[in-house]
Amino acid sequence: MGANNIKIKVTDYGFYYGKNKVLADISMEISKNTITALIGPSGCGKSTFLRTFNRMNELLTGTKVEGDILIDGVDIYKDGIDVVELRKKIGMVFQRPNPFPKTIYENVVYGPRLHRKYSKSELDHIVETSLKKAALWDEVKQKLNTSALDLSGGQQQRLCIARVLAVESEIILMDEPASALDPISTQKIEDLIDELKQNYTIIIVTHNMQQAARVSQKTAFLLMESFETPSTVIEYDDTNKIFTNPRDKRTEDYITGRFG
C-alpha cells in the first residue's frame, strides 16, 4: 500500500472526557476510497472515535486529545486548522435521519450556500447531482419544493447523505446510518454506501456484524476491557480476515456472539 494512498493516519491517539481517559493507544491507517467499519460492544467509544475525525467532540466541554490524526498529511488538531473547512471536507450522517424542516431543495443547498454565493442554475445543478449520487433523484425530482419531513425514513437518510455530498466532502462519517430503518431502506443505504466508495473514503459505526461484513473492506474492533481502562483498537485488518480468521481471541469471541 503506497503512502500516497493513505487518507487518514492515526498515531497513538487518546481521548479524555475531563480526567476520564476513554480512548487510548489507537494507531491505524485508512486508505482512500475504502469503507472502514468500527465494531465493538455498546459504550466502547466507537461513536466518540468517529467524531474525532471532524472534531465534533470539541463541542463538549472538558475534552482533550493526545497523539496525532493526519488527514492528507495534515495534523487536524494542530493550531490554526479551520474547523469549518475541516467539517466541509468530512461530512457526517447520524443514526436517525435529521433533515431540516425545509423543502427537499432547501435541505440540499443549505450547506453550499454557507460557503459561497451560487447562481440559481448552479444550485439546481448541485441539487440534481447530489440527489442522483444519493440514489434519491428519481423518487423526489417532481417534489423538490415539498417538505423533507414528508419523506419516508429511508428517503430522509438518503437526503442527509445528499446534503453531505452537496458540499463536496471527501470523507463521510456514518454513525449507524441504517439502525433506525426497515430492511428495504437498509438495503438501499448499503447499496449506496458501496457505490459511494468509488469517490469517497467512508468510516461507518455499526452494531450489525452482517452489515459490517457486507459493506466494509477494513474493520476495526474496539473494546474496553474494564470500566477502569480506556477503550482501544484490539484488532484492525481486512474485513474478511477479521470475520473469518481473527488474530485475537477477544475479536473472535465478540464476532461469534460470546459477549457484547
Q: What is the approximate shape?
A: globular
How would you spell out the order of helices and strands?
Answer: EEEHEEHEHHHHEHEHEEHH
Query: What's the gyration radius in Å?
Result: 19 Å
Distance between the termini: 33 Å
How much of the sequence lies in strands comes to 25-35%
Overall pLDDT score: 94
Count of individual beta strands = 10
Number of helices: 10
Q: For the largest beta sheet, what order do the strands appear in spatially?
A: 6-7-8-3-9-10
Which consecutive residue ranges, at least 5 long each, have pLDDT under 50?
none
Structural category: alpha/beta
Helicity, as a percent range: 25-40%
| Main sheet overview | 6 strands, mixed
Describe the structure in your own words.
The protein has helices at 46-50, 83-89, 104-115, 120-133, 137-140, 153-166, 183-196, 209-215, 239-244, 249-255; strands at 6-17, 20-31, 35-39, 63-71, 74-75, 90-93, 171-175, 201-205, 218-223, 232-238. With 260 residues, it is of the alpha/beta class. The strands form 2 sheets. It has a 6-stranded mixed beta sheet. A 4-stranded antiparallel beta sheet has the order 2-1-4-5, with no helix packed on it. Strand 4 and strand 5 (74-75) form a beta hairpin. It is globular, with a radius of gyration of 19 Å.
Task: Kindly list the characteristics that best describe this protein.
single chain, 260 residues, alpha/beta, four-stranded antiparallel sheet, 10 helices, 10 strands, 35% helix
Topology:
Layout: E1 6-17, E2 20-31, E3 35-39, H1 46-50, E4 63-71, E5 74-75, H2 83-89, E6 90-93, H3 104-115, H4 120-133, H5 137-140, H6 153-166, E7 171-175, H7 183-196, E8 201-205, H8 209-215, E9 218-223, E10 232-238, H9 239-244, H10 249-255
Helix pairs in contact: 3-4, 3-6, 4-6, 6-7
